[in-house]
Amino acid sequence: MKALVYTANEEMTYRDEPDPDPQPGDALIAIESVGICGSDMHAYLGHDERRVPPLILGHEAVGTVLEGSKAGRRVVLNPLITCGVCNECLGGRQNLCAERDLIGMYRAGAFAEKIAIPERNLIPVPDGMPSAHAALTEPGATGLHAILLAERVLSRPLSESRALVLGAGSVGLLTALLLRDKGVDEVVVAETNPLRRELVSQHCDFELLDPLQQQPQEMGFDCVFDAVGGEATRAQAIVSTRSGGVIVHIGLMDNRGSMDVRAMTLREITFIGTYTYTPVDLRATLAKLNSGALGGLGWLEQRPLEAGAEAFAELLQGRCAAPKVVLGIDS
Question: How far is residue 66 from each of residues 27, 59, 305, measured CA to CA in Å?
């Protein structure tokens, strides 16, 4: 089969790879669409010691089942593979399973024509839903999971809150769209890439600002979602959060610097780290995307898998406006 392989730092190679070897309980999937995630970019830069080249990356995937009990069905892949029997799994927090694995990390991912994955990780795609739209399920579920965690600790209903989202990549933008769907009228999105700000402004009606030129209001937000996860955005989140507010840390750009814990303590700011999603988060997000509740999704960009190396390079250089690039595979 053909695959897009991470072969060295800042190097993606489109080449022949062996077909997957499904194990008992696995399904064989023909990939239709797969998104480029920020974590894929992190690996591409050599910043993730868990992803060792050569490796097929990619985990935001949609395809058709070739072999298995659901043969012929179009499905979204839940890329998070867990044990299913620990307390976290049985308690509905599969994302915290100590034995968790992720396609495109230690095992082959979905930047390929085919992939093998446990059948329990398949979610049926609604009839007629475009595969590129369904490929937004994984990043959208990441945002939904973050919002649900914030809702548990906010002192007032989320719909009464003023929210700031740092970063307008797909996770940040989908978080903003999900907040709006939940009734949050005041959503501000901060994004440094001018190309991305311009594209998002054409498709969404959020207040957009460049934090390099205009700082978000100091102590102006009940909840701040950091979809970047960098030293600068963590500092900005603390400055922008109201007393008694909530910061939800989604991104994993770096682990540098320190945090103003004194300010967080004196202002009773709740800081929540959030990792991925549960299977129910994925199902709920797929339904939202299919219903049109999150808008027309015209801000995503589709390219063929064989053009993936160029897409990675453009994303690295800031020359790609799209919050999400989805790679398609012709069947």
Answer: 7, 18, 20
